[in-house]
Automatic annotation (TrEMBL):
Pathway: Cofactor biosynthesis; thiamine diphosphate biosynthesis. Residues 1-22 form the signal peptide. Homodimer. It comes from Nitratireductor aquimarinus. The keyword Nucleus does not apply. Keywords: Iron, Metal-binding, Pyridoxal phosphate, Signal, Thiamine biosynthesis, Transferase. Residues 36-254 form the SsuA/THI5-like domain. The lineage of its organism: Bacteria, Pseudomonadati, Pseudomonadota, Alphaproteobacteria, Hyphomicrobiales. Responsible for the formation of the pyrimidine heterocycle in the thiamine biosynthesis pathway. Catalyzes the formation of hydroxymethylpyrimidine phosphate (HMP-P) from histidine and pyridoxal phosphate (PLP). The protein uses PLP and the active site histidine to form HMP-P, generating an inactive enzyme. The enzyme can only undergo a single turnover, which suggests it is a suicide enzyme. This is Thiamine pyrimidine synthase. Belongs to the NMT1/THI5 family. It catalyses: N(6)-(pyridoxal phosphate)-L-lysyl-[4-amino-5-hydroxymethyl-2-methylpyrimidine phosphate synthase] + L-histidyl-[4-amino-5-hydroxymethyl-2-methylpyrimidine phosphate synthase] + 2 Fe(3+) + 4 H2O = L-lysyl-[4-amino-5-hydroxymethyl-2-methylpyrimidine phosphate synthase] + (2S)-2-amino-5-hydroxy-4-oxopentanoyl-[4-amino-5-hydroxymethyl-2-methylpyrimidine phosphate synthase] + 4-amino-2-methyl-5-(phosphooxymethyl)pyrimidine + 3-oxopropanoate + 2 Fe(2+) + 2 H(+). InterPro entries: NMT1/THI5 (IPR027939), SsuA/THI5 (IPR015168). The keyword 4Fe-4S does not apply.
Length: 327
């Protein structure tokens, strides 16, 4: 009997120890498909940086029909990668998302047009068809069009908005006069498809004064009341930034890690290696949200005339607590 009791006690102690050592689960919802845009997270997982912080991280790819905000609100993820315009619009509509870290300090968003359409300046968008992604990705464009006083009604004095997927076919097939494109992705798809720099006109959102913050990390506000969740997110941000710095220093190796995680097989080594280098140009040195850049985004979104993306100054839309704790 003594041996049986001892066995039960040792078993209970082993179970308690294993539970104490068990890694905390974190589910990350990406904004888009598996690609080097998210290299830092895949690197952090592959190189064991999450494991070092006692985290078991599941990375969920996004896509043209996946809205990260909806996934987060529905409990399908603990944290999401999203653009600030989408997050602020969601917050104003009642989904209390909060920015906890901002790895990307600069915008990579552009509008690429075929030169043969006669478009030379943004005012020439009038009467044209513009392709954009939806599920929150359209907000920077909508804000820009409002600033240009161009309605999205398909009229001669406005523009026609076309929903596009994650390729550049609408531009190549002349279904759209212009399409939204990232400096690190779709721009190069256009070039690789055979169009030269002389065939296109590129408008950079930063140059046009309508840049907004992209690829931040967001959680639901009520979760921040839980000290254990805050601690878990701080460890997640710390390990993720370590992954980003590793990817920045080792772009080719990081690209191969991304390819290893691409279940679709759609990505190519050449494109991902180039993307990793372009992404590095957008990264900040710290995960802490820059409040001046945040305010510029807010001001841009509020400048929508009769159709602004947000209608009032947000409150409580970001916190430095987690990024400060992480670093």
């Amino acid at each position: 009997m003594k041996h049986a009791v001892t066995g039960i006690l040792s078993g209970a102690l082993m179970l308690a120890a294993s539970q104490a050592l068990a890694a905390d689960d974190v589910t990350l919802q990406l904004k888009w498909v598996t690609q080097a845009q998210f290299a830092g997270y895949y690197v952090a997982k592959d190189q064991g940086f999450y494991e070092e912080e006692d985290l078991n991280v599941e990375i969920k790819p996004g896509g043209p029909d996946i809205a990260p905000v909806q996934v987060l609100a529905g409990g399908g993820a603990d944290v999401m990668v999203d653009w600030l315009p989408s997050a602020l619009a969601a917050r104003e509509k009642g989904v209390p998302v909060v920015n906890i870290a901002q790895p990307f300090a600069r915008s990579g968003l552009t509008m690429v047009c075929r030169k043969e359409t006669g478009i030379e300046k943004p005012e020439d968008f009038k009467g044209k068809t513009l392709g954009t992604w939806f599920f929150g990705n359209e907000y920077p464009l909508y804000s820009w069009l409002s600033k240009l006083d161009l309605p999205r009604d398909g009229s001669e004095n406005g523009v026609t908005i076309q929903k596009i997927g994650f390729n550049v076919d609408p531009l190549l097939q002349k279904q759209a006069d212009c399409i939204t494109a990232m400096t690190y992705n779709e721009y190069w798809q256009v070039i690789d498809a055979g169009l030269s720099e002389d065939d296109i006109v590129v408008f950079n959102y930063t140059d046009e004064g309508v840049a907004t913050l992209e690829d931040g990390l967001y959680v639901l506000e009520d979760k921040l009341q839980d000290p254990e969740f805050v601690d878990k997110m701080a460890r997640f941000v710390k390990a993720s930034m370590k992954g980003w710095m590793w990817a920045k220093d080792n772009p080719d190796e990081a690209a191969l890690i991304v390819l290893d995680n691409d279940a679709t097989g759609a990505q190519t080594e050449k494109h991902q290696k180039r993307m990793t280098r372009e992404i590095a140009k957008l990264l900040g040195d710290s995960p802490t949200l820059d409040e001046a850049a945040y305010q510029q985004t807010v001001d841009t979104l509020l400048q929508g005339g009769s159709d602004p993306v947000i209608t009032k100054e947000p409150e409580g839309a970001f916190t430095h607590d987690i990024s400060n704790k992480a670093m």
